[in-house]
User: Fold this.
Amino acid sequence: MKSSYVLPALFLLAFAFGSYRSLRASPEALDPGRELEIAELARSSSPAQTGTFPERWINGTNCGSEPKMQVHEYNKDFYILRQSKCEIYEAPFLYLIFGEDRALLMDTGSNPSTPVAAIVDEVIQRWLLLHGKTSISLVVAHTHTHADHNAGDAQFASVPYVEIVVGKPLSEVVQFWGFQNYPIDQPTIDLGNRVIDVLGTPGHQAASLTLYDRETRLLLTGDIVYPGHLFVFLESDWPVFITSMQRLVDFAAEHPVEWVLGCHIEMSSTPGVSYAWGTTAHPDEHVLQLRPEVLGRILRAAKSMGSQPECKIFSDFVIHPVFKCDSTWNG
Ligand SMILES: [Zn+2]
Ligand SMILES: [Zn+2]
Assistant:
């Protein structure tokens, strides 16, 4: 190279390298995950209704004595049910929320022979007694339409106080919740002095929803966010997953979220160590509840992978694109 070309060439190289660096840095710089914003908003005030979590959930280590479902009263109008791992390894969580006029059951479990309708009926009868009422109607709906969340649906078909069991096709989900433009708009449901915001959050599954209960400020994320394997099954769903995570982050930056509650636990209590899919007992599992900042961390982790997602374990979640490693992958 002639010396007269060296200086301009160096300039060009420096410019190109600088552009490359700023291009690489820009996603992080523009979107740091907004964890601080989310955390500060959550801390700035308290929800109208608070609640408590149990010391431990049934976890499949005591199949002789575990109930088929653990019913936990988060508060007098909000119940969390956990299906036993002895019934089915998926051991999903179900949510039962009471308003003044209606109750809402999100999901019916993984095993059609678990008497979920009878268990829910017991809670409803106790709630009616406590509240001096004689009846309330029940809406049965789903966080998403994977089979481990709707196996008990048929049990509710003949229950007289059930207003509707929402169907599985996306068209029925969209119609029931009142989406005009799923997943972009954000309808609400009023259970009677209790308004719940409904967000479309596909990516894990096409009809996935996230619910925000304004009274408790709990964010029910289904299978898109929980302390475990965040499965994205199809390559074409990866950008959909990221868009939904962005939707959740934006929501939590504008609405205070007390806890994020998903539908499974697969992390252990040791950070970065998870139980593999299909494990039938969790002797030392993570708690169910996640701080809302986790939304920002998941978004950041997913965005940093760009269009080349990896199967990767983080402290309290696993990014698990099934098209890159199969669902039994565990690090
Ligand atoms: Zn699922
Ligand atoms: Zn599930």
The helical segments are 3-30, 35-43, 116-131, 170-177, 238-254, 293-305. The CA atoms of residues 68 and 87 lie 7 Å apart. The radius of gyration is 22 Å.
